[in-house]
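Worked example 3 (structure in, sequence out).
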């Protein structure tokens, strides 16, 4: 009598769901409304080379907040964020974006901390110094990062340099439509 092992999920699905350690990059500043100190999440640093290849990042370590906002909102507990002086990640509206978008907010007064000023603050940081701004490491499922950041996910695969085995055999390059 032999033991039969039935996989819970195919190996390629596991590879896409495996956790990837990412560093949360924070920008510490004072709120323009209440003047209290707070932190905004500017994005994530992905140090693992295999995960960067899957995401199509190459040597780039950084994914900006707008790329990963949904994955962070779905993963991070608001109480955990508050302990680190980070406000809730939620949809807010601005004059420039009246339809609203996922954004950081002040932990004290919940005013929107807009994406444009945040991206400007990140640009002032030299790329090799971004890891110095990491305030916490968290595991994010690779498929959440793929869904958030990779144009190849819509085609069913990873980035063009990926050899993790999670590709489903479809073309890696996204279709362009004009």
């Amino acid at each position: 009598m032999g033991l039969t092992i039935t996989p819970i999920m195919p190996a390629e699905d596991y590879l896409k769901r495996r956790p990837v350690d990412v560093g949360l990059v924070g920008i510490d500043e004072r709120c323009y409304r209440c003047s209290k100190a707070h932190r905004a999440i500017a994005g994530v640093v992905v140090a693992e080379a295999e995960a960067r290849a899957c995401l199509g990042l190459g040597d780039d370590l950084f994914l900006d907040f707008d790329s990963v906002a949904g994955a962070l909102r779905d993963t991070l507990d608001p109480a955990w964020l508050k302990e680190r002086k980070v406000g809730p990640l939620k949809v807010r509206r601005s004059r420039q974006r009246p339809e609203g978008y996922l954004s950081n907010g002040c932990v004290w007064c919940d005013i929107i901390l807009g994406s444009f000023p945040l991206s400007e603050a990140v640009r002032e940081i030299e790329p090799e110094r971004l890891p110095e701004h990491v305030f916490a490491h968290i595991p994010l499922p690779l498929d959440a990062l793929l869904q958030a950041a990779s144009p190849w996910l819509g085609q069913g695969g990873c980035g063009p340099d990926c050899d993790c085995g999670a590709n489903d055999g479809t073309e890696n390059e996204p279709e362009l439509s004009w």
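Notes: The two ends are 60 Å apart (CA to CA). The helical segments are 11-17, 49-55, 65-75, 78-83, 115-123, 142-149.
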